[in-house]
Amino acid sequence: MIDLHTHSIFSDGVLVPSELARRAEAMGIKAIAITDHADASNLDFIIPRIVAVSEVLNQACRIRIVPGIELTHIPPSQMAALADRARSLGAKIIVAHGETIVEPVLPGTNRSALGADIDVLAHPGLISEEEVAMAVDKGIFLEITARKGHSLTNGHVAKLAKKLDAGLVLNTDSHEPSDLITDEQARRIVLGAGLEESDFERMQANAESLL
After folding, report:
1. Which is it for strands 31-34 and 168-171: parallel, antiparallel or unpaired?
2. Distance between CA 154 and CA 89 in Å, rounded?
């Protein structure tokens, strides 16, 4: 299992990065991206710290730690500029907080994110077919999520992704230890979204390509 969407105490997670890494490693997870929530107020605070701790952990741990960020509730007009800023600060994985149906995300967020330099559009909610086509054109992965609430639209995302051959990844969006999942549970979530065992393997290959 490779998980490209997790949170530490640098946003609304409960674990310091070292404990997050250790707990994920103990569950057999091969790699995680630490992608704390950010906007213009804290981008330059979070990313350098995640970059620094990732370098230390990668010297000592079997699990691979990748510094990232989740651009969260960003006004659509700011998305591209903040994605570029995140990349310049050292974010290797840029996740955009998509239009989940359980939060009041601004309309147009999915579209603006797909026009920016991001890697993953997280929990994109009731994403349109046109937006999925944009993801295909840009090589941006859509997320199937294990996160409660956000996962309510997994089936919709999976259906359109299969129709248009969009790339998918499976992430936990972990905020606390109980959010991390085993490989077995990950496979069940994929099946529950109406996908197949082979789709899980393809998702893992997609995640590996970002590493």
Report:
1. unpaired
2. 31
Query: How open is the CA angle 129-183-199, to the nearest 5 degrees?
Result: 30
Check: CATH 3.30.428.10 for 2-210? no
- Say which DSSP state 176 is in: S
List, for the chain, all residue ranges whose pLDDT scores fall below the cut of 70: none
pTM: 0.97
How many other β-carbons are positioned within 10 Å of the β-carbon of residue 152?
16
pLDDT of residue 177: 97
Q: Locate 54 and state its tokens.
A: 């990732």
CA–CA separation, 147 and 211 (whole Å): 22
pLDDT at 36: 98
**Rounded-to-integer distance, Cα 94 and Cα 77, Å:** 17
Q: Is 184 exposed, middle or buried (0-12, 13-18, 19+ CB in 10 A)?
A: exposed
Q: What is the 3-state secondary structure (H, E, C) of 178-211?
A: HHCCCHHHHHHHHHHCCCCHHHHHHHHHHHHHHC
* Predicted local distance difference test score (pLDDT) of residue 137: 98
118: helix, strand or coil = coil
Q: Shortest CA distance to 65 belongs to which of 30, 89, 94, 97? A: 30
Question: What value, to the nearest 5°, has the Cα angle with vertex 23 and ends 192 and 183?
Answer: 30
